[in-house]
Structure to design on (89 residues):
């Protein structure tokens, strides 16, 4: 085990985390921005209004992308476990 392999593993883990979190976070951000624009146009300043649309949007994204997210996480875990013997030498 050397510094390069540890750095590569950390980089792969961070990239996977970004890939898995991006659809949910971007959806929540887009819905929040849209609702914020509507609230500022209508001067309705209620903080709880954004909760239900974000909940439905994030749920829809998880429903659509959940299989891909799970497969990505499982395949990364398999690769990590397969590379363990080589890392322990």
């Amino acid at each position: 085990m050397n510094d390069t392999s540890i750095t590569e593993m950390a980089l792969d883990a961070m990239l996977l985390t970004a890939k898995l979190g991006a659809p949910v976070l971007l959806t929540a951000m887009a819905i929040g921005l849209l609702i914020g624009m509507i609230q500022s146009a209508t001067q309705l300043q209620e903080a709880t209004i954004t909760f239900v649309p974000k909940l439905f949007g994030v749920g829809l994204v998880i429903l659509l992308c959940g299989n891909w997210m799970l497969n990505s996480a499982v395949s990364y875990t398999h690769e990590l476990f397969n590379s363990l013997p080589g890392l322990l030498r």
